């Protein structure tokens, strides 16, 4: 299969490498000049648990995608949420009438963005538990294992989605065909909607947040808002299940010592966050449905205020 990875950072590097190793024709697309230069010069270095590989993969900036490039069978979307629309605007030359998009972004609201560029029948949504990191430009550290859940957005897309499932299975990416991927996306967004913003504002890791006497009250309020808005979209989030899933992350032996991605983006690297696609999306959707979401609204405003103070870019 001819596959483009749109957003070839840490996770894009992992998925691209694993698909490449099993004979797929993979191209990488990214905006980081140093990353592009390093891969063109030295190849993409992947450090797995038990091995190290170097793959000579073609990589382009979105602006370098031109009409002479052939269309691809599949685009795996792994940009930051706020970069998604501009990315797909720039890479339209490789999007054909039969090109599918597999969206693995965190957050909510990406369906509306992607539908501007491909028919809904050509959209696959998913979530992943794989992790990845970058040791530097062109150098991915890929430890641990994970899985990928996927489901076609429209019934007519199921046949191709099952082809993608087989390709990902051959690449040992542990895919699962879901009967309700939208629930999984909302569940993950709800977990992120508590831990990401609160750890960022409070300047703490997950275990430190969990130790606070006010932690339970805050997560209950945010979960209630996510659940109310999800119900309006015919997605049922069980309050107790969500709170248990969030509190399970507090353990220092598992995820507790981890600083969420939003913290890393904003506090460590002064980068703008994806808050508008997590709590901000619930706030917007709540307004449309007539549902009050004061915690999500205030947390969205706090993060944007912090972005301004830190001059995030």
UniProtKB/TrEMBL annotation:
InterPro entries: 6-PGluconate_DH-like_C_sf, 6PGD_dom2, ApbA, Ketopantoate_reductase, KPA_reductase, KPR_N, NAD(P)-bd_dom_sf. GO terms for cellular component: cytoplasm. Pfam families: ApbA, ApbA_C. It comes from the Bacteria. The keyword Membrane does not apply. Keywords: NADP, Oxidoreductase, Pantothenate biosynthesis. Residues 180-307 form the Ketopantoate reductase C-terminal domain. Belongs to the ketopantoate reductase family. This is 2-dehydropantoate 2-reductase. It comes from Enterococcus devriesei.
């Amino acid at each position: 299969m001819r596959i483009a990875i749109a957003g070839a950072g840490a996770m894009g590097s992992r998925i691209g490498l694993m698909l490449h190793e099993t004979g797929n024709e993979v191209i990488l697309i990214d905006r980081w000049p140093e990353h592009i230069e390093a891969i063109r010069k030295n190849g993409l270095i992947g450090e797995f648990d038990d091995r190290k590989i170097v793959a000579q993969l073609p990589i382009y900036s979105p602006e370098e995608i031109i009409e002479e490039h052939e269309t691809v069978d599949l685009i795996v979307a792994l940009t930051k949420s706020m970069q998604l629309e501009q990315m797909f605007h720039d890479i339209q030359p490789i999007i054909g009438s039969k090109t599918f998009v597999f969206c693995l972004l965190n957050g909510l609201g990406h369906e509306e963005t992607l539908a501007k560029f491909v028919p809904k029948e050509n959209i696959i949504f998913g979530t992943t538990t794989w992790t990845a990191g970058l040791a530097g430009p062109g150098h991915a550290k890929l430890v641990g294992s994970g899985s990928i859940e996927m489901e076609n957005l429209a019934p007519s897309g199921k046949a191709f989605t099952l082809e993608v499932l087989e390709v990902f299975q051959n690449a040992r990416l542990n895919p699962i065909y879901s009967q309700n991927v939208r629930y999984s996306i909302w569940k993950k967004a709800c977990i992120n909607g508590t831990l990401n913003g609160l750890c960022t504002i409070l300047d703490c890791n997950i275990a430190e947040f969990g130790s606070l006497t006010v932690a339970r009250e805050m997560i209950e309020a945010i979960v209630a808002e996510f659940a109310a808005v999800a119900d309006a979209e015919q997605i049922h989030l069980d309050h107790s299940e969500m709170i248990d899933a969030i509190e399970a992350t507090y353990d220092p032996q598992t995820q507790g010592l981890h600083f969420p991605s939003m913290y890393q983006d904003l506090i460590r690297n002064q980068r703008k966050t994806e808050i508008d696609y997590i709590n901000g999306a619930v706030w917007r959707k709540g307004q449309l449905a007539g549902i009050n979401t004061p915690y999500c609204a205030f947390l969205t405003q706090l993060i944007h205020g912090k972005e301004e103070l830190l001059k995030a870019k």
